[in-house]
Amino acid sequence: MEEYAYMQANPQQIIMDMFDGMPDSYNIIAYDGETPVGTIRVVIDGALRLPADQMYDFNQYRMQLIEQAQSQDLPLPLLANSGMFAIDARWRNRRDLFRALFKLSCDIGEVRGVTDIITTANIETLALYKRMGLKALGAQVRHEHISVSMVPMHCTMQQITQWAFGGPRAHSKLTELFSQCYEYLLVSAGTAIFNTEDENANEAYLISSGAISITMDTTTEQQDFDLATLTAGELFGESCLFDEQARTVNATAIVNTDLLVLKKKDFWHQVNQDQSYMKVVLQVMEQKLRDVGRRALIYAHASREERLAFFWSNWQKPHNLCCESRINVLSEWADMRFL
User: Fold this and answer.
1) Which of 42, 127, 297, 312 has its CA 20 to 30 A from that of 107?
2) Spatial distance between the Cα atoms of 222 and 127, rounded to a whole number of angstroms
3) Pick the CATH number of 2-169 from 3.40.50.620, 3.40.50.300, 3.60.140.10, 3.40.630.30
4) What is the distance between the alpha carbons of residues 39 and 118, in angstroms, rounded to a whole number?
């Protein structure tokens, strides 16, 4: 804010208003290690209305939404407002950080049942909001106390979610479990998520976008044994939710990857409220055991033709359509054919 002179210098480096003390206000902060590099605030509609209502009269729009819902026998709309958005100058070219902040905002909105978004956009960033799917509700309004012209804007929760996740979002009990934990991890290609023998493991990961290679160390100095290539929607590291053992495999990002993080304590808190979450994680683990068993059988006893058929079926799977995944499949086939 100070960088663009929207607010006066603040020795305490704290910007707050009355909405920060409300129970339906969520502050999302992005960190690079221990350093905060980005933030956004989500406020759900309540007795004080929303921060955007202090900049523009949204009452007519609210009435339109209510009348539309009543005419279609739908639940009354619930509005939310995202604001206090800021990213450190050194990180503003990181589109994945920008999008991740809004992904977390969408997670909060979906869990709370938000139907519509309103905001007042700085005229200088109007094009950005339009690309996100928001539309202007009226002409720009000048606010002299901060020397900024604002445009009232709106969109549905579905529209902003589709922009944030790059398309319609697939819903499952697994994504629902992770969406309530509110932690994203953005990693670059080649970054190790965890390694064999890592102790005190207490986090499982769900891939939002990108690809992860799962490997196991061998007793020789040859290349690690490739176990799997995982892509969007797949879970890994989940065994730590049930035991106290060290990691037994390595997990490495193949490309720039977004991960949702589930901590053990949060998992068990969710399970104590809804035991169906336990079932969905156990189903993932059971399928992995089946896959590992089949792969071990192919490695140990299959003919070259059977091995080729096995890897051809992997090649054709939807989650292996990305270039990096197919390269891993080819690499594994090349290693196996000489065994």
Assistant:
1) 127
2) 52
3) 3.40.630.30
4) 18
